[in-house]
Specification:
Helix content is 37%, strand content 20%. By secondary structure, the protein is an alpha/beta fold. The radius of gyration is 18 Å and the shape is globular.
């Protein structure tokens, strides 16, 4: 698997590259967001992205990637000294999969990288009530999810979803009208060792509602219980 480390501290890039390569990953580095944006980003399974860089910040780069269907599903781990809750929530709002504060623990970094890649590339064996046919299509009116290609479309236009958003939408469409607690959504759609704030589920639900247009209103909040996709 290929990982791209984007940080304006060259020494840190080299340290991360060395330690991740010892774990068997193929690692490239870039010293600015501008440099990274010129690379073939679709080749990478994960981005480790610093926030405080030159003219283009990590937040700005992440937003651009999440707006493009071809790069929207590349997982991102932010690595930064900005470790207060507001910045963590901002990163999650953009679509980050995890957040690691500096100074970095290499042991923690390896564990978090492994967890994100396991979630993205592995099968968590979630149970489902619906069985898809060979095409793997699950749909509600003009909102369609393809479980084979891992894509979603709205009125035949591809929707740029992160993996978490895709998993949430798929779960809702497979089990309409079922109320899921936040704990159930975390268990089904997040890795067990992910770093999760209390607001993480709410942030991802809000983002998903915006991305699925008129069908966002079908995701209802059941105060005191959780969320449901209401037909």
């Amino acid at each position: 698997m290929k990982i791209l480390v984007v940080d304006d501290e060259q020494d840190l890039c080299e340290i991360l590259q060395y330690n991740l390569e010892t774990e068997g990953y193929e690692v490239d580095t870039a010293n600015s967001a501008e440099e990274a944006m010129q690379m073939q980003l679709t080749d990478y399974s994960l981005l480790l992205l610093d926030i405080m860089m030159g003219e283009m910040s990590g937040f700005q780069m992440a937003r651009r990637l999440k707006e493009r269907p071809e790069t929207a599903r590349i997982p991102i781990i932010f690595i930064t000294a900005l470790d207060n809750e507001d910045n963590i929530v901002k990163g999650l709002n953009i679509g980050a999969d995890d957040y690691i504060a500096k100074p970095i623990s290499i042991k923690e970094l390896k564990a978090r990288v492994s967890a994100v890649l396991r979630r993205v590339c592995g099968d968590k064996g979630k149970d489902t009530a619906a069985e898809e046919d060979d095409s793997g299509i699950v749909e509600y009116k003009t909102l369609r999810v393809n479980t084979v290609s891992k894509t979603a479309t709205l009125d035949n236009v591809k929707v740029a979803l992160t993996k978490l958003e895709f998993e949430l939408l798929l779960l809702f469409l497979r089990k309409p009208n079922k109320v899921f607690t936040r704990e159930e959504l975390l268990k089904r759609c997040w890795p067990s060792d992910a770093y999760v704030l209390d607001r993480t589920v709410d942030v991802n639900i809000t983002r998903l509602r915006k991305k699925i247009g008129i069908y966002g209103k079908q995701i209802k909040t059941r105060f005191g219980y959780g969320y449901t996709f209401e037909e």
